[in-house]
Amino acid sequence: MDQHYQGVWSYARFLMRGAAEAEDLVHEAFLLAFDRLASGEEFTGDPGLWLRGTVRNLVKAWWRQRRKLPQDVADHLGELADEVDDALTAAAGAELRAALDHCLGLLVPEDRQLVARRYEDGLRIADIARQMSSNAATIRVQLFRIRQALRRCVETQLSRGMAT
Q1: Among 68, 99, 104, 112, which is most exposed with the fewest C-beta within 10 angstroms?
Q2: pLDDT in tens, 18-44
Q3: Would you say the C-alpha torsion 7, 10, 13, 17 has a positive or negative sign?
Q4: CB atoms within 10 A of CB 154
Q5: Does 85 reside within a domain?
Q6: Are residues 55 and 98 in the same domain?
């Protein structure tokens, strides 16, 4: 527990954007891990990866239950969690957040507004398309390209930070 707690907690806090909820989900994930060990099951791979995967699933359930988000929004949050999981194995949550903030600041205002509508405001792609007098497929492709650019930028920022 001591070896993985900080990393798992940082990951949960990053996904939840709130310490109280993150703490609850981390405790639940560790309880599941202890139950697994108590039942005689072993971890075949990295326990940290298993714990982060468990937290990711708990976060998805939390968003669905407590926020009453539509299924597609919760799924997109899960996709974002999947995208950052690899980066979190190599860097602390604070470094990732700083890199993501930096990269979001580099976006042109239109792209930043699109990201905000989708992931901060929680609007559905169809609603964004309607607001922007566009079609959903176009918005979906734009968001995909923005996420790819953000991923590349974050990876670059993290590699620079690790080299110094």
Answers
A1: 68
A2: 656 778 888 888 888 888 888 887 767
A3: negative
A4: 24
A5: no
A6: no
